[in-house]
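Internal ticket - ligand job 696, (S)-3-Hydroxyhexanoyl-CoA:
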Amino acid sequence: MSSTQYELHGRVAVISMHNPPVNGLGYELRRGIVDGVKKAEADDNVKAVVIIGSEQAFSGGADIREFGTPKMMAEPTLPTVINFLDTTTKPVVAAIGGVAMGGGLELAMGCHYRIAKADTKVALPEVKLGILPGAGGTQRLPRLIGVEHALNLIVSGATVPAAMFKGSPLFDEFSQGELLQDALAFAEKLIDEGKGIRRVRDMKVSHPKAEAFFMWAGNGIQQMAKNYPAPMKCLEAVKASVFKKFDDGIKVERDAFAQLIQTEESKSLRHAFFAERATSKIPDVPEDTPTRDIKSVGVIGAGTMGSGIAINFLNAGIPVRILEMKQEALDRGVKHIQGVYEGRVKKGKMTAEDAEKKVALLQPTLSYDDLSDVDLVIEAVFEDMGVKQQVFEKLDQICKHGAILASNTSTLDLNKIASFTKRPEDVIGLHFFSPANVMKLLEVVRGEKTSKEVLATSMKLAKKIKKTAVISGVCDGFIGNRMVGRYQTEALLMLEEGATPQQIDKAIEKFGFVMGPLRMADLAGGDIGWAIRKRHYEEKPDMKRMVIADRLCEMGRFGQKTGAGFYKYIPGNRKPQHDPEVDKVIEECRKEMGITPRKISDQEIVERCVYALVNEGARILEEGIAQRASDIDIVYLTGYGFPVFRGGPMFYADQVGLLNVVRAIEKIRENPNTDSKFWEPAPLLAKLADEGKTFN
Ligand code: 3H9
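stdout (structure tokens):
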């Protein structure tokens, strides 16, 4: 089917857009719209035109896949299409339902009239892609809804319902029935009343205290935008709508668009957009794979992790039975869950009635038998194979046929865990990140025997509980923790060699991470990393010890929870404070190891930490643990605070150039304090670098 269809309905020509899934305004669609309107102009019997999309989408905006390709610039471009509408003689009505976003909303604003379903999702979300509306949105929206509202919407990229603009000329009418029929009736009325074209560009726009308003708004935006140039450009363009003539304002917008689309930030954000959507695609699990109904969930363990996991399902309206061994621990978990909901009510994020309904879905229990009929069980018990064995053997005995048995393990061998049951095909890893009710990432660990049905069900469920699910194969630490282990190791080695915790964290945070590696270790709990290290020391007796970190743990310094780790903490305050005690420990350890401290540059800190992620990521990719490089990026963007404006470690490496990454890695390898085996460039990285290729 071609991208547009042209049909006559009496005196009205209807151009319907068909470019699934979201009517992205790609070249063919743009061409079809212009051809359709030209045809209508040439037909004396046609008195008005309606442009309509599908039920799901009027249009999701410019086709982002075309960005950076010749098709994007092929005429008619979107600005040309919209300019063209301004030159026509017959009224053009946009009939809007589903979503009208970005270029889609700009197309609608380029039409002379608009009728919409009240629940249409409306947005100019370009800023989230590191750009600004580039087809007149910054000039037309202020004319239709006022400067302040328009600036808010453009800078935030927020999606709001069309009904919010009732009473403004953004929508002339709201359709109560069938959209096309209502649009046709609206167009007929226009014709009957002799209403001609009405161009948004001719409307007035002003603000009573424009200078002061933009100054004030600019200060706020500047602070919020930090590493992103787009929000300030949005402000400049909206400001131009007030202070400049329409065409000059459009020029400001076009120039900014042309600049922003070339930035690393925009490339990274666009990469993240597609990467996030790619994660759900599993090459050997077709989209029509049957799934199981998950109507009830059991969670084993009511600690921070277990109760956080439970909240996800309660939020989605799925009843949860939460199990603990002791009443006291169970009560603590339930109290924690109630507290989270109370907090949401206090913050005005939900009503007390809603919160009550959610909590009512929770059934605390001390008996495994209460899990016999749930559709999915997730265990969040102590990270120890022996403990997991007991839990899974028990689950195998009591759970009904067809129940999915999931482990929240973050490092242990899922295949081994599955082998404790007689139904390994029903066993899967669902690795939530702490706090589990807040963090978006869910690593879905596919065991050797996990069935496709169980995998497809888990991915569907992840969507329902609003997680970004990434598939990982089985290995120690899966994707995220396996990589972070290497990253943390480099940070600890640099402590030995001469850096301070403050310097390391500052350099990594300047690079854009939400938190440096040592602050992160203090937040996660030093004991967790220590337990993993001790297991590794046992498995590989000749491996290098992390002397400083081990010493701090031996002193009971487990980070925030004990008030001291790599930093010290004042009770009730999470802000890390420099601790001279730590300096002393570091100095002692260096002496014991015979290391003379040297000055370490911020560049070295960033390269060693980030390229450790890249090198391990390349191995993970080559081993097939991750399905694609962009999945690794999503793990890091959503679970580990990697700067979104850098697109994730693998995308960042692509931008630096893999040959440059290899050269830097070879240099790091010359340092005798590093693990020279690890710092051999991963074969895949070396190969891609050689061939001048990229990961993504
Ligand atoms: C723009 O308009 C610039 C202009 O100002 C100026 C131009 C000169 N293009 O999210 P979903 C794909 S910039 C291409 O899972 P949902 C998406 O990749 C644009 N593809 O569905 C996925 O593909 P696949 C401003 C797009 O129902 C599929 O559609 N607009 C586009 O949860 C389904 O997506 C935006 O930023 C696109 N524009 O949500 C809107 N949009 O199946 C971005 C989607 O192969 N889009 N796809 O994985 C969205 O926010 C959501 O997709 C939307 C639907 C709300 C529309």
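Auto-summary: The first strand starts at residue 4 and ends at 9. The chain has a mean pLDDT of 96.
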